[in-house]
Amino acid sequence: MNEPTPPPRSTDRDPSADPDPSASGSAGDPKSRFTELARSRQGGSIEESSLWTGSYSPKAMIGAWFGGAIATLVTLVVALMMGLGGKGWGITLLLIALGWLLTAGFYWYRRLSVHYTLSDQRLVHESGLLWRTVDRVELIDVDDVTYRQGPIERALGVGTIVVSSSDRTSPELILPGIDRVREVADLIDDARRTERRSRGLHIESI
């Protein structure tokens, strides 16, 4: 007696019944989800492009140098009018030299300790020599960009930029000693508008 032949086994697999573990792992990986979200929100690219870098401009100290020169002249005139002796002149010259050393020290401290970086996504302000402070403000959080100048700064094209934002740690970022201050302020404002448009946000609604 012939035994019945068993039906052939199907070689087809149901993908939904036995998913690829590597595929499910990548879909559930937080880093992968973050990368996909960032790409979708930033037009398919998460790389930053540098737009501007700067530091404390020497022009911003011209007012201080000018003030120091006037103070030195006034001190010498007063000393002559008072008829100081040798000891008095020694003290006077020592005070003048100390004032110039403090002014020069302040200038070099600003030059070496203050750095600015603007990319198409954020503004970074670094300050300090031994103790470094780094303030980062996302352009998407920037609400307003203004600048201020004194009479001498206006003549030289330098000034201080004030960045107001919704950032909790740095709601107001002050950037002193900016050369070509108007151009830089416009650049920051244009960059924040471009970033907001790329995120699909209406500027006036924020």
TrEMBL record:
Highest taxon, organism lineage: Bacteria
Domain YdbS-like PH: from-to ranges: 114-188
Nucleotide-binding keyword on record: no
InterPro entries given in the database record: YdbS-like_PH
Region called Disordered, residue ranges: 1-48
Keywords carried by this UniProt record: Membrane, Transmembrane, Transmembrane helix
Biased composition annotated in UniProt, kind: Low complexity: 19-29
Segments of skewed composition (Basic and acidic residues): 30-39
Membrane-spanning intervals of the chain: 62-82, 88-109
Protein name listed in UniProt: Bacterial membrane flanked domain protein
Species of origin: Botrimarina hoheduenensis
